[in-house]
Amino acid sequence: MNDSTHKKPDQERANLLQLLQGVNEFTHKAFPENRELFQSLANGQAPHTLFVTCADSRVVPERITQTRPGDLFVCRNIGNIVPGYGEMMVGVSAVVEYAVSALKVRQIVVCGHSDCGAMKGLMAQQAVAETMPTVAAWLRNAEAARSVVFTRKPEGDAALTALIEENVRLQLAHLRTHPSVAAALANGELALQGWVYNIERGEVQVLSENGRDFLTLDQAIEQQQAEAVA
Ligand SMILES: [Zn+2]
């Protein structure tokens, strides 16, 4: 949702050509190098994680987590939003239900990110509503995060950071309203986690289990290791 420079038709053709050349390289180089992996995935998937993140081009789940094809079931939309159950019975709700009930993923990660255009849009609601009414309607699913943050009257960058973090908390809460998620959580078959990815630093912060603070990655890893031993 940043201002995009007007592209000439020539440049658009070059971009499409780039995509096709990329596929060519994949088919003839990357694919043969990982043939066994791709063939093992040909007739089924068993991803361990549903990864909900923003559609932002700078957030690349498989790269950030260094995972392989078949590992992550990914759901992307602007603002890494999961509407509460019954609010909007649209794509995201179906993805959640399918991932939990059919694929039996063991965890769901909601990953927000720095410099998020959707969260900036939430801060400038009026302007968004005028030019992008569909986006504005979608962002209503993050409205409660805006209310929480702005009662504290933060300023500048701190406001955006707080909103990005609060939105992750809110979408985790929305996830719990989905019957498939509630049931899997009650049976101890599913874990939820909130992340914020920092584009500039290449780092992820992880929401603590009590939902209060964002931990450094080292702290989060330590916590997971302690739980694995216990
Ligand atoms: Zn974003």
UniProtKB/TrEMBL annotation:
Keyword Metal-binding listed: yes
Cofactor comment: Binds 1 zinc ion per subunit.
Cofactor requirement: Zn(2+)
Pfam family, one: Pro_CA
Enzyme Commission numbers on file: 4.2.1.1
Keywords: Lyase, Metal-binding, Zinc
Residues that, per the record, bind Zn(2+): C54, D56, H113, C116
InterPro entries linked to this entry: Beta_CA_cladeB (IPR045066), Carbonic_anhydrase (IPR001765), Carbonic_anhydrase_CS (IPR015892), Carbonic_anhydrase_sf (IPR036874)
Stated role: Reversible hydration of carbon dioxide.
Name of this chain's protein: Carbonic anhydrase
Lineage: Bacteria, Pseudomonadati, Pseudomonadota, Gammaproteobacteria, Lysobacterales
